[in-house]
Amino acid sequence: MHDLRSFAAHLEKKGELIRVKKTVNRKFELPALMRQLEKQRKAYIFESIEGADVPLIGGILNSPMRMSQSIGKEVSDDYAHHNHAAIFSKAFNNPLAHVITDNSPVKDVIIKGDAIDLHKLPVPTFFELDSGPFITGAVGISIDPDHEQLNMGFYRGLVVSDQHIVINASSMSDLRRIYAAAEKADKPMPIALALGVPPALLMTASGKAPPGVSEIDIAGSLMGKPIELIKCETNDLMVPANAEIIIEGIVDPHDKIWNTLGEFADQYGPEIAPKTRVTAITRRKDAMFYSIMAGRNPEHNTIGAVSTYGMQRVIEDNLRAQFPNIKDINVASAPQLGTMLHIFISINKKNDDEPQKLLDAAFAATAGIFPVSTITKRIVIVDDDVDVFSLEEVEWAIWTRLSKQSKMLIIPDVKSWELERCADDEMRSMRVGIDATMDIESVDKLIKPLIPGASDIQLKDYL
């Protein structure tokens, strides 16, 4: 089981981590190099960045296989998100309580008052129209007043001055609700950003745990040992003791700033969020600044996909109870599919009316805090000989088995959410449902050619 630096050492030993020693500029030059390294599926450490006093590390979790390796499980190259979701689900159902410590290397260096300077951190400016430099790899920590527990999540943070940052929260995040509660109470609220936490915490911070379930304790279960927490210097928040850097702050819920960042589906994402005044920065004496390459890039999309695991679990429970002949369900969030979810369902249908009923039930289902229709652009029903975890096979099924106009469902004017940039000013857009199953009368002429026993015959055994 790994923390960030031990996993980085593991990857470096395997030749999967590249060190860049040449000094680089954090605006555009650094992200241009990060993107090239990510395309090679390499982790990286930039040892010298102009104006920064710590190196930058990233590219750590750029595939489901890497996520598994980071928690001590060696898997094959074809390991995919649905495989990792099963491991995640087991940890979700068996949380391991965290422990408190009063001693940690993250307290090696404590910076307060006028000495605080966020610009000494190597925060990249990623894209041409970004509002400025963004912290992308921090786990945000706050108190959920409704449940009186720590809340964790991934929130992008715009550095607006030496001592101020804007920590964004999407409408899907608990932090948006926590901000609203602070604004209603007319009170400033404490917040912290933890950079360079153990990979298990990166996963659970991206995942959507329901209220009352601790992301920290799920991470402990993934790691097989309790997560250690330590108290902040300037507020009462508890933060991961095994982090590289902690940024502590106080949010003014009334002082809000619009900002824009290039997001995961190759679109700019505008947000509005309150300003945070930084009250302390603590870090290891040899700290590394963890950054995720923004936009449509492997690590961002890999970690982001974990957010669909909980939705998949809720949707599966809902639909399987109504349609026991469902084989597989894939809640897909691949970057080539845009900002919305796409759901692919395979079924051993009993009649030609069943797929349409399943489409209606799926769009009417709920996925945590949102209806499926709000966050899902398309639902496709396929036969049980189609692998719903293969986008290629789903596309094949659509264009070889979609025979009638009646098998295409168009739903206009559905209430959407802010990530769907093409929605109109009232946040409404269309949805698509596709019955890509074979008509019962056409089954004999639409059978897929298969090789009997092919899955048991492996080329490597013959070489």
Give the assembly state of these chains: single chain
Distance between the termini: 34 Å
Q: Structural class per helix/strand content?
A: alpha+beta
* Main sheet summary: 9 strands, antiparallel
General form: globular
Number of helices: 12
- Radius of gyration, in Å, reads 23 Å
Average pLDDT metric: 91
* Content of β-strand: 25-35%
- Secondary structure: number of strands: 23
Low-confidence stretches: none
Helix content: 25-40%
SSE arrangement:
Blueprint lengths: L3 H10 L3 E4 L8 H11 L3 E4 L9 E3 L5 H7 L10 H13 L5 E2 L8 E4 L21 E2 L3 E6 L4 E6 L2 E5 L2 E4 L6 H12 L3 E7 L3 H8 L8 H9 L4 E4 L6 E3 L4 E18 L5 E16 L5 E2 L7 H8 L1 H16 L3 E7 L8 E7 L6 H11 L1 E2 L2 E2 H4 E8 L7 H11 L6 E8 L12 E8 L28
Parallel strand pairs: 1-2, 3-16, 4-12, 18-21, 21-23
Antiparallel strand pairs: 2-3, 5-15, 6-9, 7-8, 7-11, 9-10, 10-15, 11-14, 12-13, 14-15, 17-18, 19-20, 22-23
Helix pairs in contact: 4-7, 6-7
Structure, explained:
The structure is a single chain. By secondary structure, the protein is an alpha+beta fold. It contains twelve helices and 23 strands. The protein has helices spanning 4-13, 29-39, 64-70, 81-93, 174-185, 199-206, 215-223, 298-305, 307-322, 354-364, 372-375, 391-401, and strands at 17-20, 43-46, 56-58, 99-100, 109-112, 134-135, 139-144, 149-154, 157-161, 164-167, 189-195, 228-231, 238-240, 245-262, 268-283, 289-290, 326-332, 341-347, 366-367, 370-371, 376-383, 408-415, 428-435. The strands form five sheets. Strands 5, 6, 7, 8, 9, 10, 11, 14 and 15 form a nine-stranded antiparallel β-sheet that branches. It has a five-stranded mixed β-sheet with strand order 17-18-21-23-22, sandwiched between helices. It has a four-stranded mixed β-sheet with strand order 1-2-3-16. A hairpin with a 6-residue loop joins strand 12 and strand 13 (238-240). Helix 4 (81-93) crosses helix 7 (215-223) and helix 6 packs across helix 7. The longest helix is centred in the last third of the chain and has 16 residues, at 307-322. The protein is globular and about 75 Å long. The two termini are 34 Å apart.
